[in-house]
From TrEMBL, chain A:
Residues 110-171, 192-214 are annotated as: Disordered. Component of the translation initiation factor 2B (eIF2B) complex which is a heterodecamer of two sets of five different subunits: alpha, beta, gamma, delta and epsilon. Subunits alpha, beta and delta comprise a regulatory subcomplex and subunits epsilon and gamma comprise a catalytic subcomplex. Within the complex, the hexameric regulatory complex resides at the center, with the two heterodimeric catalytic subcomplexes bound on opposite sides. It comes from the Eukaryota. It comes from Mytilinidion resinicola. Keywords: Coiled coil, Cytoplasm, Initiation factor, Protein biosynthesis. PANTHER family: TRANSLATION INITIATION FACTOR EIF-2B SUBUNIT BETA. This is Translation initiation factor eIF2B subunit beta. It is found in: Cytoplasm, Cytosol. InterPro entries: eIF2B_beta_subunit, IF-2B-related, IF_2B-like_C, NagB/RpiA_transferase-like. Its main location: cytoplasm. Belongs to the eIF-2B alpha/beta/delta subunits family. The keyword Calcium does not apply. The keyword Protein biosynthesis applies. The lineage of its organism: Eukaryota, Fungi, Dikarya, Ascomycota, Pezizomycotina.
UniProtKB/TrEMBL annotation, chain B:
GO terms for molecular function: guanyl-nucleotide exchange factor activity; transferase activity; translation initiation factor activity. Gene3D superfamilies: Translation initiation factor eif-2b, domain 2, Translation initiation factor eIF-2B, N-terminal domain. This is Translation initiation factor eIF2B subunit alpha. One of its GO terms (cellular component) is eukaryotic translation initiation factor 2B complex.
């Protein structure tokens, strides 16, 4: 890491500080170079920086057109992802923001058609504020936002949405009105959907044809025009509000995860964990308040062992910038909470597994098939746990959940500084031997028993559902989506 | 069914179905069934919803009973029926169609005027799936596949046509089932791939385990994708799945989402079709004499399941063919053997299938 003249090397906190005073374009470039130089790395710092940067991008955005905003965010997003494709969290945050904008756009369209249909002028601002907060934090199957986040649902959730729309005029059925980008054939009824070309009035109402399409009479159009303009003016404010919630989610996710700790850690259990993860540390600390157990900590040599040692001693990573911003008091080591901590080298994992009751793993990112990419050594642990039938629990924030399907696992693994394994001053050795230092492991879904996220516990096979709840299908392939837009 | 009034003009839905299939080799059974039903709707002059539904049910039943293996077909007819039910149940959304009758006519017109479109959509979704293939088949990979699946063929062809991916194919060819002619038979697909410069090895079913060591990925098609995420596919797919699992090879299914069918088979023998794959036999009086020595101790059954006699082999061959028109025998591959199901909307995990089905049925 290059030392600048100031005491602190460029990193997350200095970047966040610079964001407000720097023009957006310069900030983007700065972030890209930080990503490329790995000066901002790992999921949480990347997520925080991306969110903050995108907030600046939205603030700076001048137009009122949601589509233009979408395109702008996507362009920025693509540059960030290209800078460091293995930090999948960056892409996740970009997709979340895109989904947010789409949803607000849909809400507007819905509100419009709703106003026209019912002539009641339903209190849309109220309806927005009522529903939006659920976006990130709730995956209730009955949440109307489910439909917003997941177009495949909207066309097929017939009977259920009907029942709802009886009492609440602005509810689910409305969400079906994003024909403008509804991907073809994402639902089983895709086969029957209306042709994409605008149909004339004699063409019947297919399910996919939203209420909006055939209400386009002249008078209705006028009213739509008015309300659209009214709504569009505050789209930016709404997006920013949503992004602040996203920011809150990032900050709170560890605590929300930790709230589940007592369900998973019981008295006198022996817990094995790996790497110095803040999420896991908080999880264990939350359980330590009420219960006594033993933690076996694999040290994750050679990339993370310093941080592990520091975590065991002081409760926080030595170089953790993010954490230093928060109140220091909350960080106490597990040992201070009366927990026995045993530090073992990674090579002892299998030997000790027979005595372990539960494995708790941190992760770098989680993939759509239920597998995960975690610090190297995770797969050894997961495999050993499988052999001993020890349950493996993965602790992760939903923001780490990526909609990317891992077709090629080798692509996901990043290789780090070989000097960590064998110091470069050991010239003889380095000359003769190839040294590899993979930073990550891919752990297939079969080896994981449970994911604990800020939304609760999920089986790996259920993750596809959470992916569908949080990301819009059009955003999954960010480069592909542009082509479709331009058509 | 007894109360049902005979149709004024007896529409031969089965003939239409077979004509559609014969005219267009790209057409899958579910889509052909949908189109046949649309044509049936066009010829009938029903005015009410319930009459239409009854009519439809009658045609569906005729169609199902006319083929030996209606699983794939019923995916199409079910989808069509559910589509009608959900659309017709939807209260007219206020402005456009104030009365239910208007809705009914509107939907009917929509279906009739767009009948041809469905087939095109189905093909479009196949092409969409094929375009995902590039993610699935990596440079230097060896792919194992079986059967005469159109989707698999389209996928492999699309990868072959990119030109940038060098891959090899091991094709499991069953001499019996694939001897039939046709654009989408296994032999035709093999020839198609070879013509595009893709090295293809053909192996019999029995060589799958032997070959798996050289395989990077298994890709199969499916006749139907059932509720728990398992698939109904040509006989032999199940054992490939089991072997792939044992060898830890990724096993992908490619199937359009209109092949999802509401069916929950508990095991191989729980399928709603009659297959005479296991055909236990005892020898006749005269033959028993020759094998008297083995059949001591009260055993009267000479062979457990497998006929070794000459007559048995020839019967086995004819049995496969005659088990119903041109249908091949199928088996059920349970979801735990499947890595992912590639549909036009992306890769689904097997557990996502039930959700898709629940969305249209409940």
């Amino acid at each position: 890491m290059s030392r600048s003249t100031t005491i602190q090397a460029p990193g997350l906190s200095s970047y966040l500080k610079s964001l407000r005073s720097t023009p957006v374009e310069a900030s983007i470039e700065h972030f890209i170079s930080l990503l490329k130089r790995r000066q901002i790395r790992n999921s949480r710092p990347c997520a925080l920086a991306t969110t903050q940067l995108l907030i600046q991008v939205v603030k700076e955005f001048k137009g009122k057109d949601a589509d233009k905003l979408l395109r702008r965010i996507r362009d920025v997003g693509r540059r960030l992802i290209a800078a460091q494709p293995r930090e999948m969290v960056v892409g996740n945050i970009v997709r979340r923001v895109l989904g947010l904008i789409r949803e607000i756009k849909d809400d507007d369209a819905d509100a419009d058609s709703n106003a026209v249909n019912s002539d009641a002028g339903s209190p849309t601002p109220h309806h927005d504020s009522l529903n939006r907060p659920h976006l990130a934090s709730s995956i209730s199957t009955f949440s109307p936002l489910r439909h917003g986040a997941l177009p495949p649902m909207d066309t097929t959730s017939g009977p259920e949405s009907l029942a709802d729309s009886g009492e609440l005029p602005h509810r689910p059925a409305l969400f079906s009105s994003h024909t403008s980008y509804a991907p073809l054939g994402t639902s089983l009824f895709g086969l029957f959907s209306q042709p994409d070309t605008p149909s004339n009035t004699s063409t019947p109402t297919g399910r996919h044809s939203p209420t909006g399409k055939h209400t386009m009479t002249a008078s209705a159009l006028e009213r739509i025009g008015e309300s659209t303009i009214l709504k569009r003016t505050n789209i930016k404010a709404e997006v920013l509000e949503g992004m602040n919630e996203l920011q809150d989610e990032l900050e709170q996710s560890d605590d929300q995860i930790a709230a589940n700790a007592l369900d998973h850690i019981h008295s006198n259990e022996i817990i094995l964990t790996h790497t110095a993860s803040t999420s896991v540390q908080k999880f264990l600390l939350a359980a330590a308040k009420k219960r006594k157990f033993t933690v076996v900590h694999a040290e994750a040599h050679p990339n993370d062992h310093d941080a592990v040692h520091a975590t065991i001693l002081t409760g926080k990573k030595r170089d953790a910038e993010v954490i230093s911003e928060e109140a220091g008091d909350r960080w106490k080591p597990l040992t201070a909470a009366g927990i026995t901590v045993v530090l073992i080298p990674d090579s002892h994992v299998f030997a000790i597994m027979a005595r372990v009751n539960k494995v708790i793993l941190a992760t770098h990112s989680v993939l759509a098939n239920g597998g995960l990419v975690a610090a190297a050594g995770a797969r050894v642990i997961a495999s050993a746990a499988k052999v001993h039938r020890t349950p493996v629990v993965v602790v992760t924030g939903v923001y780490k959940l990526s909609p990317v399907y891992p077709f090629d696992i080798d692509e996901l693994i990043e290789y780090g500084d070989a000097g960590n394994v064998v110091p470069y001053d050991d010239g003889d050795f380095v000359d003769k031997v190839d040294v590899d230092n993979p930073l990550y492991d891919y752990v297939p879904p079969e080896l994981v028993d449970l994911y604990v996220t800020n939304l609760g516990g999920h089986a790996p096979s259920y993750l596809y559902r959470i992916v569908a709840d949080h990301y819009h299908p059009d955003d999954i392939n960010l480069s592909g989506a542009v082509e479709r837009d331009e058509k | 069914m007894a109360t049902e009034t005979p149709l004024p003009d007896e529409f031969d839905v089965v003939a239409v179905y077979h004509r559609l299939l014969a005219n267009d080799h790209d057409l899958t059974m579910p889509v052909a069934a949908i189109e046949a039903l649309v044509e049936a709707m066009a010829t009938s002059s029903t005015q009410t919803v319930s009459e239409t539904m009854r009519n439809l049910e009658k045609h569906t039943n005729t169609l199902k009973s006319s083929v030996a293996n209606p699983i794939s077909l019923s995916a199409g007819t079910d989808l069509f029926q559910r589509y009608l039910v959900t659309t017709l149940n939807r209260p007219s959304a206020g402005v456009a169609s104030p009365s239910g009758a208007g809705d009914f006519d509107a939907i009917r017109n929509h279906l009739l005027s767009n009948g041809r479109l469905f087939a095109e959509r189905a093909k479009a979704s196949r092409n969409k799936i094929a375009s995902f293939g590039r993610n699935l088949v990596r440079d230097g990979a060896t792919v194992l596949t079986n059967g005469g699946s159109r989707v698999v063929a389209a996928l492999l062809r699309s990868v072959a046509e990119t030109g940038s991916v060098r891959f090899k194919v091991v094709y499991v060819l069953d001499s019996d089932a694939d001897s039939q002619e046709g654009e989408w038979s296994g032999t035709a697909i093999v020839a198609m791939l070879r013509a595009r410069g893709i090295p293809v090895a053909t192996i019999p079913d029995s060589a799958v385990a032997y070959s798996l060591g050289k395989i990077d990925i298994v890709i199969v098609g499916a006749e139907g994708v059932v509720e728990n995420g398992g698939i109904i596919s040509r006989l032999g797919t199940y054992q490939i799945g089991l072997l792939a699992k044992a060898k830890q090879k990724p096993f992908y299914v490619v199937a359009e989402s209109h092949k999802f069918v509401k069916l929950f088979p508990l095991n191989q023998y729980d399928l709603p079709i009659k297959q005479r794959i296991l055909d236990f036999k005892v020898g006749k009086e005269g033959e028993l004499v020759s094998t008297e020595n083995e059949s001591q101790g009260g055993y009267t059954v000479e062979d457990e399941g497998v006929d070794f006699s000459d007559s048995g082999v020839s019967e086995g061959k004819t049995r496969r063919k005659c088990s119903g028109s041109s249908e091949d025998p199928v088996d059920y591959t349970p979801p735990n053997l499947i890595s992912g199901i590639l549909t036009e909307s992306g890769v689904l995990t097997p557990s996502a299938v039930s959700e898709e089905l629940i969305k249209i049925w409940f």
